[in-house]
Specification:
The protein has 96 residues and is an all-alpha fold. Helix content is 92%, strand content 0%. The longest helix has 68 residues, at 28-95.
Length: 96
């Protein structure tokens, strides 16, 4: 019976000794892991920001292209009116 008590006390002492003896300082691997995590997070943030900027640039380009298309359409309509006027003028001149 005293052997079981002695064994229990030794196990308890071992558990307490291990838990008290554990270092609380970070090792090289843990420091490197944290640095890697930080780098990954910063890279992720930079990629997300770049993606947002690309999206904004694409929207601006879309609007610019739409405006340019409208200007081209307006210019083409003006040219068509001038051509029609010139054709009419030519037809009138031929009739005279």
């Amino acid at each position: 019976m005293w052997i079981k008590s002695l064994l229990a006390v030794l196990c308890l002492a071992l558990i307490l000794g291990v838990s008290v003896g554990c270092k609380t300082e970070e090792g090289f691997a843990e420091k490197a892991g944290k640095a890697l995590d930080k780098a990954v997070d910063e890279t992720k943030d930079a990629v997300e920001e770049a993606g947002e900027e690309i999206g904004e640039g694409a929207e601006e380009l879309k609007e610019d292209m739409k405006d340019a298309g409208e200007e081209i359409g307006d210019g083409a309509a003006e040219v068509m009116e001038e051509v029609e006027d010139a054709v009419e003028d030519t037809a009138d001149a031929i009739k005279k």
